[in-house]
Hints:
By secondary structure, the protein is an alpha+beta fold. The protein has helices at residues 63-68, 78-92; strands at residues 15-20, 27-34, 50-57, 72-77. The protein has 2 helices and 4 strands; from the N terminus they run βββαβα.
Amino acid sequence: MTTLSHEPRAVASAVVLYGIHPLRGYAVTWHLTPLPAVPARAGRRPGGAQFVVERADGHITDSLAWQLAEKEVAVLGVAEVSRLVRSATHRRR
Length: 93
């Protein structure tokens, strides 16, 4: 994941994903929020879909607790988000 020093603007509500930290094995909450599509520029293809992915330790269901939680923020593409969702849901079973 690429860590960001600022928070990008998202276009829609986040999807909340609950799972287990992939390395440490404790509960983690993710918020996955789509970013606006990047338009094509002269001679370039349009950028692929991207998501702001916020991760905080713990099973956080309260919106105020989420706002106050320390989070890691990254921007991921569709393939990376798909892998994250599969990994989190696979560990829950």
